[in-house]
Fold this protein.
Amino acid sequence: MKAPIAAIMFFTRIPLWRVVKIDPEYFKRVVEWWPLAGLLTGGFMAAVWWAASLVMPQPLAIALAIAARMLLTGALHEDGLADFFDGMGGGRTRERILEIMKDSHIGTYGVLGLVMYMLVLWLCLCGLPAKLLPWIILAADPWAKCCTSQLINSLPYCRKESEAKSGAVYTPIGVGGTVGGLLCAVLPAFLIPLSLFWAYLGPVTVTILMILYLRYKIQGYTGDCCGATALLAELSFYLICVALMVS
């Protein structure tokens, strides 16, 4: 049970460290339990939307739900997305890209990337029917993270372990971890209409394209790349859902 607890401690701000001590080695396995954390963060986001929608207009309830998830995660993935856009937008060489991504300051590409991501995310969620919205959120979050977790099985880590922001290099996911992650990720699929199942192809496609892109640009991955891929993969899920609803 220590690896799942480590994942929740790593991917959220829930202060489990106050009640349980986890050996640092378990934090190398957090990615295999990322979909479990996605169930938690997606469920929290959906719950905040539902509670807020009882007394507020849907657009405002959606904005509060997005903000609530960022508070729960400490904007971990949003920080990675900004660093990813800064690095890929401002760097020409592998070394320069990695240097920019490690810089704690946000640049123009990061700001523009975050603004556009937030705008498209908010518009997508506003375009979905209220009766399906919480279930779609609950389905999208863990599935996007399950797909993204395969980055660490497909690419090497770009930096030395001592240079990692998290302080550890993730351990590749074995068969057991893959199966467990899939179970967490597909469980909410039974809560959405069958007509929306095409949306599950979005995160798969984004992950494959990101693996190819990262292999070409930096010959590996970083934690920022994982965070960016997770958010873009999730966004693709929502975009396809909206397209299916409109068509």
Observations:
- DSSP finds eleven helices and no strands in the chain.
- The radius of gyration is 17 Å.
